[in-house]
Amino acid sequence: MTKIAHFGTFDVDNYGDLLFPHIAEFRLPNQEWEHISPTDNLTIFKDSKPIISFKNAQKNKFKAVIIGGGNILHLLPNNITVYNNIVGFSYANLWIGAAKIAIEQKIPYLFNAPGISRNFKGYLQNKVATKTFSNSNYVAFREKFSKQIATNAANDNLNFRNSISVVPDSAFDIDKLWPLGSKKKSNYITVNLNSRYHSPIKETAKSLDTLSGELKMPIKLIIIGDCHGDKAFTKMVSEFMETKHDIVESDSLKKIAHTIGNGNYFFGSSMHAFITALAYGVSAFLILKNKPLHKFKGLLEIAELNTDVVCDSFENVLNCIEKPALLSDQVKLNINTALNKHWEQINKVIQNNENPGFSLYILYFEKLLSLNYKFNRILNKFK
Question: Lesser CB count within 10 Å: N end or C end of the chain?
Answer without folding.
Answer: C
